[in-house]
Amino acid sequence: MKLRTFLAFVAPSVAVMVILIAVPLVGIVYLSLYQSHTKTELVELTVEVPTFGGKTRKDTRLSPQPVLDENGEPVRVWKFVGTQNLAKATDLKQLTQAITDPGDASGRGFLGRMYQEVVNIEFWAALEFTLLYTFLTTPAMLMVGLGLALAVNSVTRQMRGTLVFATLLPMIVTPIVSSLAVYWLFLDNSLVSTLMEYLGFGRFYFLADKVTTRTLIILYGVWFAAPFAFIILYAGLQTLPLEPLESAMIDGANEWQRLRYIIIPHLSPLITVIALIHIMDAYRVFEPILVFSSDVYASSVQFLTYFVLSYEDNIHRAAAYSLLTIVGVILLLIPVLRQSFRERQVET
Description:
This protein has 348 residues and is mainly alpha-helical. It contains 14 helices and four strands. The protein has helices spanning 3-33, 84-90, 92-100, 110-118, 122-154, 157-172, 175-185, 191-198, 210-237, 242-250, 255-282, 287-292, 301-310, 315-347, and strands at 34-38, 40-50, 56-66, 76-80. A hairpin with a 5-residue loop joins β2 and β3.
């Protein structure tokens, strides 16, 4: 292939990647390394203050006012602060204090007290649940997706279309809508709570407890992500050669042995791809935390980015959280990529 032809095919993809990935990433890094504020000056303002008898008096005071440029826009002052925004975002001073002097908590050992102090820090509490959500939903959704794929693949062809469509429904609905559906099911006077009370289990307040709230979000994550794993693995099962399975059956291999030594090795490249995509998505968990209003019991690094940007209007700290999210995703992907690379080397 000629170089000109190659560039003609590759250049559009490279340009799109630069515009959609590289430029925003450079912007995030830049914002996280700087701090800005609106330049102000003290200006004498004279106002009329009402007094008794319908009279007024003039009151002159100094008031800070934004400095305007030649176009009438407020002047912004930018200052390079290096890693200060990252240090403030991660609360390194408070983290150091929590590790070196965890305080005293009755009934807890040193590690227990230290853990409790660390998860009381905003960023590290969000990171704790982010990692918990990622590490629990990834294997769970792979197992559920594989189970569904094997189950649908074993039924008659006439039933497969309907089952595939029904299984894909959670993935078709947007995350906000699906989160709302689960949220409404487990409200205090919702269907699930009322039904459990009717059956004699008593009234449950699912969203008023840390354990149940976190469990619901994690189960939602598995329910929402499993259809993606299912459809990829189901497609992979259609390419599974029948000869090894038939030979294994003749040799007396049971279903578990066929699954372990034939089916799973055949699907392992797809399992790796699914795990990579889900880890990137799970680490950025946001919608269920926003919908459940669960940031007291379960927060995430992505939710902190949204909260700081929307409610504190601190674009630099939000950029620091975004940068930490990117770093976290990369660190989680490295072991999976290394393991996949080693497996490919062994095969070749």
